[in-house]
Amino acid sequence: MLSILIGLILLLALAYLGWSIIWVAPLAAGVVALLSGLDVYTAYTDTYMEGLVGFVKKWFPIFLLGAVFGKLMEETGAARAVAKKVTQLIGGKRAILGVLIASALLTYGGVSLFVVVFAVYPIALELFREANVTRKLLVPTFALGAFTFTMTSMPGTPQIQNLIPMDYYNTTPTAGPVIGIVTTLIMAVGGYAWLAYREKKLSAKGEGFVQQEKAGASTSDEAASTPNWLLSLVPLIVVVVLLNVVKLEPIYALILGVVSIMLINAKDYKKFVFSINEGAKGSVMAILNTSAAVGFGAVIAIVPAFDNITEWLLNVSDNPLVAQSLAIQIMAMITGSASGGMGIALSTLGDTFYNLSQTTGIDPEVFHRMAAVASGASILPNNGALLTLLAVTGLTHKETYKDVFVVALVIPTIAVIAGIIMGGIGLV
């Protein structure tokens, strides 16, 4: 048990310091294996690599197509067009709400979380400047709009966190619609209420918009031509409808989404090769970061003491939804990745939870939805998406994490509790 604890602390500490999980994860796994009396070489070459490769084999097509789709949306200006129109409709004085809705719309349409940040940031910066809202609230606003409810709880979202549970529970992207809608409202309304409160409080203290002192993301996107926003919406609608109405496999939905972008923006064909290449490169790094964490989990799973942890999780409550949610949330916190934490937990306990769904009478759709929601209620300072967001905005943990903690960890955790209660009384 101590070896697992030391390995987890090492992984968390090094990730917090900004070291790449691609090599930190096998290092921490080696420490766990060494302290547990396992053969370190075998644990790495067999167990760790099998866990890593297994995740890549299953999910690389989704990561690849999702990244290409997002990059095409970014490079053609389609993502910028949608974001700009949303913020115009909302109004310049409601900067936080405009950025929140724009981020949520793009994320729910299938655009990568990271691409959403780059696409919306220049517009968000201008909106915050016009409304004189402190830049400190940029990060929690993005975190709420892109890293919470549209990523995990909204039924039908094509984000990977909502697709992973499908294989374990034989479900669809719209699994657990009632629980999904309620947890979405908790996160969206609760998070926005907090940000509105913080805006008023900071404004009363005289904290308004201050021009950034160091370079973050480029704000020169406005110089580029912006396509028609209605046409730019079409690829997002294509992915969501094909995935949830037509019930196509995610791979086919994303392929047709990519094709629709290229057809609508045919005049920008010169950007296609660059976009596809860059999307492909980005997908490799994204899936390696996640699968590295899954490989670490695979090593933990063969440590004899892991049976004790599993037994504790399974017996922590009479409600198996509590065990599943806690396991996924803890692993997502440790690895700094919602999909990585979910991959670790479900790869080791997914079959057990599915069997429990059959014996307890709790619908597998409930397990699916709660797995997704719990994975997102995990944003600690070492979270990979948060670190990227801080780099883009030029802000720091000290300036922003208090509000990120509330909107992306505390309120989503409340949503998890609410979802568990609903699932326990038979709501789906």
Automatic annotation (TrEMBL):
InterPro entries in alphabetical order: Glcn_transporter (IPR003474)
Organism: Planococcus koreensis
Keyword Hydrolase part of the UniProt annotation: no
Molecular function as annotated in GO: gluconate transmembrane transporter activity
Name used for this protein in its record: H+/gluconate symporter-like permease
Superkingdom: Bacteria
Membrane-spanning ranges: 95-125, 137-154, 174-195, 228-245, 286-306, 326-349, 370-392, 404-427
GO cellular component, one term: plasma membrane
The entry's keywords: Membrane, Transmembrane, Transmembrane helix
